Amino acid sequence: MAVLRQDIDQNIQRLEKFYETDSCVYSNLAEILKKEKEEGTSKMVASCGRALFWLTRTMDFTAGLLRLLSKEMSSKMEELVEECYMTTLKPHHGWIASAAFKVCLKLVPDNKTFMEAIGARDESYDTLREDIDTLSSLLTPILKEIYFVLEQYGLSRLRSM
User: Fold this and answer.
1) Could you cite one Gene Ontology molecular function of this protein (predicted)?
2) Which of 41, 54, 95, 110 has a Cα-to-Cα distance from 119 of 20 to 30 A?
């Protein structure tokens, strides 16, 4: 998971660095995407557009995984991760990223370890389920809005290697 975390951190840093070049002008993500589109750099590997695209896909994957987990707490984590990957990330991955995912799938923790890592406080997981449902209800409209913005700037169909 360290590789995924590093990728997420790099994408966040890329957006922060651009924002810091002129925080008044680039006070929102749409302004950053607009600037890159004007320059013709929005689809380049090191662009903020691509960084936002993959951060959004990662959040979509995470939210989807948590929703699946909330509904199917007794299912194996590996199965839930794979199911969520197939619907959220795989359509945007090339063969290299898909192959890397298969390797990472072997490193998915068991349910108990994962539940403890995300802060499960009771054996029945009722509180965790409520927290997941609340997070999901808050995150879903935000993700929809980001996807809308990505679509406006022609960034909704990027692929990895």
Assistant:
1) lipid transfer activity
2) 54
Residue 24 belongs to some domain of the structure: yes
Show the domain range for 138: 1-153
Residue-wise pLDDT for 40-92, tens only, equals 999 999 999 999 999 999 999 999 999 999 898 888 999 999 999 999 999 88
Q: What is the CATH number of the domain that holds 114?
A: 1.10.3520.10
Rounded Cα–Cα distance for residues 81 and 83 (Å): 6
Coil, strand, or helix at residue 161? Answer: coil
Query: Where do runs of H (alpha helix) occur along the chain?
Result: 2-21, 29-39, 48-71, 77-88, 95-105, 111-117, 126-152
Residue 44: left if φ>0, alpha if ψ -120 to 50, beta else—which one? beta
pTM (two decimals): 0.86
Residue with tokens 């009771």: 122
- Of 64, 60, 87, 140, the C-alpha closest to 72 is 64
Q: Give domain status of residue 21, yes or no.
A: yes
